[in-house]
Amino acid sequence: MEHFDCVVIGGGMVGAASALTLAQLGLQVALVEQYQPKDYSAEQSFDLRVSAISLASQNLLSQIGAWQQINEWRACPYKRLGVWEHESAYTEFNADDIEQRYLGHIVENRLIQLALWQQINAMRNIRAFCPDSLVSLTQDNDKATLILTNSSITTNLVIGADGAQSKVRQMSAIGITGWDYQQSAMLINVETSMSQQDITWQQFSPTGPVALLPLAGESSLGGYASLVWYHQRDEITRLASLTNSQLQEEVLKHFPKQLGEIKVLAKGAFPLTRRHANTYQHKRVLLLGDAAHTINPMAGQGVNLGFKDVIALQHVIADAISHGEAWHDEAVLARYEQKRRKENLLMMSTMDALYAGFSHPSPVIKAARNLALLAVNKVPFLNSTIKNKALAYACGL
Ligand SMILES: Cc1cc2nc3c(=O)[nH]c(=O)nc-3n(C[C@H](O)[C@H](O)[C@H](O)COP(=O)(O)OP(=O)(O)OC[C@H]3O[C@@H](n4cnc5c(N)ncnc54)[C@H](O)[C@@H]3O)c2cc1C
Q1: Which CATH architecture has domain 2-77+103-178+274-358?
Q2: What is the DSSP letter of 242?
Q3: Buried-most residue among 64, 309, 315, 395 (CB within 10 A)?
């Protein structure tokens, strides 16, 4: 049976990035992914799944050689972030306030994954098993054995980066806490009458926020954007059943005037779940990304947290190697969870507090949240401390 230092199950954005960072340390890595990523061509329409990539995530993608390619394909930088419920409490975050050129980029998930796979294919110490899938996983004292659909391999370390429904997590008997939110999200790709925008905005309402994420390039109408519409599950099911032109009318009725004219190009509905693994480690198995934590996407932090997991694991293993420790020792691997669990939990809880606060129907709470937004915007002390600190944190700085 072929042996690898590490086997990463799941070659999505987080798994692919982790395979590269571990290979950079000189380890022999296997990456197992069930679907072959599709090649890119400029004529392809935008994918529905996009992510707001923070500055910290961009740094990681640059360090592993993928960012330049992503930027050459298509990525839309944004400099401003607008948030409001009532118009009078409009709050805007600006990259200038934290001395940056922009706050982040909106990028299609598929392109991030594909750019990472280009790097993987160029690395001699990563072997890709694709298309292939995990069938079973067993651990003994000195190794883990993985049966895949097409082969069998052994390893010192298994990394579960196989997403929210992680089989690695289930096969390692790692439990989860979590729930399904009452809301779902509808992603809608549109042409907009405005040319490429440098702002992403979100308007809150008790039924859930509506948001715009700008996309790169010019369309016959002006530009492109990805709209996110959070609402009760039944309403999202109804919206998903409409034709594009019917949906267009609904969007124009319910989105704020900032949107301008639009034409709907594509749509899809996604359930919202919260999941947190009870532990990120079981002997020689570690969980990263959505396999470890699935977060409400309201503030676009999911994959950014996953990339922070990737960085933390690389540091833990690099440190152990440089100090002559057995890097796959359970005590060494435990340092990864110590580094990541608190921050992931804090971000998940903050998102839940925002979700609960902004969807509460009480007029008193509505007034309080609008006053809070207004204060953050208008009171100089709050503006320069809380607002800028929150912004820097969201950018991963
Ligand atoms: C509506 C919505 C909007 C979002 N917006 C943002 C945003 O703006 N910013 C942000 O940071 N995050 C956002 N997120 C979250 C983000 O999409 C996820 O956090 C991210 O996709 C997780 O990446 P991952 O690599 O951990 O998992 P996944 O993307 O789920 O990848 C898992 C991979 O594992 C493979 N796999 C699964 N099982 C197996 C198996 N048994 N064998 C082999 N391979 C397997 C899959 O094929 C897949 O390629 C959003 C999420 C939603 C639902």
Answers
A1: 3-Layer(bba) Sandwich (3.50)
A2: S
A3: 309
